[in-house]
Amino acid sequence: MFMHIGHDQVIRSEEIIAMINQQDIETSSINEEMIDFVEHQDDELELDDDVIKTIVITKDNVYYSPLSILTLKKRTSILSVLNQQMDYLEEN
């Protein structure tokens, strides 16, 4: 299934490795290093801390979402329920 994470970005929900609250970045030196590394790798990337609420990490990319982590978690929960229902229907 696909999940909309804001800013016209849609990603495969199966590819999500982690979702990190932007506020947690400031309290973790490891997370802060990772984000600094990604910013230096992509010179065109301009981050506006006022707009970014969640960082979504996949195998191949790091996405910056204006949606809160709670909203994204609700969406992943809904997708999980839908997947379970689809599996159930396919079995019967």
Automatic annotation (TrEMBL):
One Pfam family hit: RemA-like
NCBIfam families (alphabetical): MtxRegRemB
UniProt-recorded name of the protein: Uncharacterized protein DUF370
Natural source organism: Streptohalobacillus salinus
